[in-house]
Design brief:
393 residues; alpha/beta; 2 domains; seven-stranded mixed β-sheet; 13 helices
């Protein structure tokens, strides 16, 4: 249900200006200057009318409290509540939880509250839920190591779904309950919570504690970062379509001295450097509308532990200019980091000036010169390297 527009909203907001931070980006990394003696910084996402905000801030005068709410008509009521209580340890941001890292610096926040957020029940809207893995990884950017997220909801489906999201984003679950108030009211309630508790609706609650991110398969992260395409390992049924893509770039075949054929493609899928296992190699196609628009080949933990080696990235010749290659190149460093690797390397033919410029724009730098042998002919290559990229930084 939409909240009715408040009369005299601007005047009421102005009357609470001491609690209202209008330029939160300017406070990034400086929030504790508002309360130097604060033991912790507590952050609430979606404070609504602010009963929980006001009562929690009042109960913990030793802590600094910041509430984010994107509906001014609700936020003004929350600010008025805090003003009426004479609170000086709570401040408000009229903003969006999706951009917290523009408001707060890394490690600046100790605890985050998510209370009764919109469940977005449609599956196609699941990425909008505040407990979606992508949002949780965003909170990691501002939450200190060991910091906590306290989550409450009356929506059982949202809660059960969220229990799978927390671990994927590197949060250890504890205090999981599906009926928080079964033996009497526990903690401070929101207005919404009190209403539904009175109706007999069980309240679900859990705590997620930030810990080291688990290693995630590179392919899984690529799929998450590029949802507009289907990304899958090349199988026998894909060979003809992949070969057709490779055949379109005759210039690269001439440059490398190795024209694409079905036999060469099968060799490329099976080829492994010494002491590498088949499980380290992945040759994938990126599909759109039933046809591949790019192919990507990589080796994990090669040529050193925690390095990802890119063997090939080729975009369909007829699809170039759409930014497909750049999107893939931007996603690979993040996927490598999620997979437990700290760097990426590749070999670019010295004569391939366009390819060299592309990889430089993607953050790769020349490490050294090397050689490769194709069809009995030796060719000079640039060995290029860049660091993996943590999404949480």
């Amino acid at each position: 249900m939409r909240m009715r527009k408040k009369k005299n909203l601007e005047q009421r907001m102005e009357s609470c200006s001491a609690l209202w931070v209008r330029e939160p980006a300017q406070m990034r990394g400086l929030w504790r200057t508002k309360m130097p003696q604060a033991k912790r910084l507590r952050l609430e996402l979606g404070c609504g009318k602010g009963r929980f905000t006001a009562e929690t801030a009042a109960a913990h005068p030793e802590d600094l409290y910041v509430a984010v709410e994107r509906v001014p008509d609700a936020m003004v009521i929350a600010m008025e509540r805090c003003k009426a209580l004479g609170l000086s340890n709570v401040f408000f941001i009229d903003g969006d939880a999706a951009v917290l890292d523009t408001y707060f610096a890394p490690d600046e926040v100790d605890l985050i509250y998510i209370n009764f957020c919109d469940p977005w029940p449609s599956v196609k809207h699941s990425r909008r839920r505040l407990t979606y893995e992508g949002f949780l990884r965003g909170y990691r950017k501002v939450l200190r190591d060991g910091g906590e997220i306290h989550f409450k909801t009356d929506n059982r489906d949202l809660f059960e779904w969220s229990l799978f999201q927390f671990p994927k984003a590197g949060f250890a679950l504890s205090e999981v309950t599906r009926n928080l108030h079964a033996n009497g009211v526990q903690g401070i309630m929101t207005d919404y919570e009190e209403k539904f508790h009175g109706m007999g609706t069980p309240i679900n609650r859990c705590v997620g504690t930030k810990e080291a991110l688990p290693d995630v398969p590179v392919l899984d992260t690529l799929r998450r970062l590029m949802p507009q395409w289907e990304v899958r390992e090349v199988g026998e049924e894909d060979m003809q379509a992949v070969l057709a893509l490779l055949e379109k770039d005759r210039a690269f075949g001439e440059l490398s001295g190795r024209q694409p054929t079905m036999e060469n493609l099968r060799d490329d899928l099976a080829a492994l450097p010494p002491r590498c296992l088949p499980s380290q190699k992945h040759y994938v196609a990126i599909w759109e509308g039933g046809a591949p628009v790019a192919v990507l080949d990589w080796l994990e933990h090669y040529p050193r532990e925690r390095t990802l080696w890119i063997g090939l990235l080729m975009v369909d010749y007829n699809q170039r200019g759409r930014g497909i290659g750049r999107t893939v190149a931007d996603a690979i460093p993040k996927a490598a980091c999620a997979g437990g690797m700290d760097s990426l390397r590749l070999a670019c033919l010295e004569e391939n000036q366009a390819g060299h410029a592309f990889w430089e724009r993607a953050g790769f730098r020349n490490l050294r010169m090397g050689e490769t042998q194709t069809e009995g002919e030796r060719q000079s290559v640039w060995i290029m390297e860049r660091l993996a990229e943590n999404e949480a930084l």
